[in-house]
Amino acid sequence: MSQHHTGSCLCGQVSYELTGEFKKFFLCHCSRCRKTSGTSHCANLFAPGAELTWTSGAEHIRFYRHPDSNFARAFCQTCGSNVPIDAKARGLVVVPAGSLDSDLDIKAQANIFMGSKGNWDDNLNQAPCFDAMPS
Ligand SMILES: [Zn+2]
Ligand SMILES: [Zn+2]
Predict the structure, then answer these.
(1) Which ligand has the minimum distance to the alpha carbon of residue 39?
(2) 57 Cα to the center of ligand 1, angstroms
(3) How far apart are the CA of 13 and the centre of ligand 1, in A?
(4) How many alpha carbons fall within 13 Å on the CB side of residue 83?
(5) b/e map of 54-87 (b: 16 or more CB within 10 Å)?
(6) pLDDT for 48-69, tens place per residue?
(7) What does residue 109 show for φ and ψ, rounded to 5 degrees?
(8) Nearest bound ligand to the CA of residue 60
C-alpha cells in the first residue's frame, strides 16, 4: 500500500515528501553507521520504487561516499542531519527514520551488523529511562 510521508532536517532547511511503502526497517550497528551517527546504530527504512520529492533545500544537501564500500550518506550542509538517499541505481529510497516528521506503522525488523557493534552497545534499553534530562 502506497503511503505518504514527510520529513526534514534539524535546522529545517531541507524537507521532503515520500510516496511509497517501507518494506524494510533495519537498525545497523556497523562501524560506519556508528561513526556517522555518533551513536550505537543508524535506523534506516528502505522503500523500493518510492518517489522522493525535495520540498525545500535540495541545494543544501551534501553527499559522502565511503571509498571502500557501498556506504553513502546524504546530509544537510548546515546542521549535518542525515536525509534520504534516492538510490536510483538500486531502485529504492533509503530514509533515516529519525528524519521523518510523519509517524510510522512499521517497527524495526532487525538489528544488523551486530558482529561489529561497539563494545558499549549491549542491552542499552536496560538503562533507566527518564522523560527528560534527569536532575
Ligand atoms: Zn539542516
Ligand atoms: Zn551500517
Answers:
(1) 2
(2) 8
(3) 5
(4) 34
(5) beebeebbeeeeeeeeebebbbbeeeebbbbbbe
(6) 999 999 999 999 999 999 998 8
(7) -95, -25
(8) 1
pLDDT at 1 over 70: no
Cβ atoms of residues 9 and 64 within 8 Å: no
- Ligand number nearest CA of 78 is 1
What average pLDDT does range 10-32 have in this prediction?
Answer: 97
Any idea which ligand is nearest the CA of 80? 1
Residue 135 has pLDDT above 90, yes or no: no
Mean pLDDT throughout 101-125? 95
Lookup: cell for 72: 553513502
Architecture of domain 3-116: Beta Complex (2.170)
Cell match 533545500: residue? 57
pTM score of the predicted model:
0.93
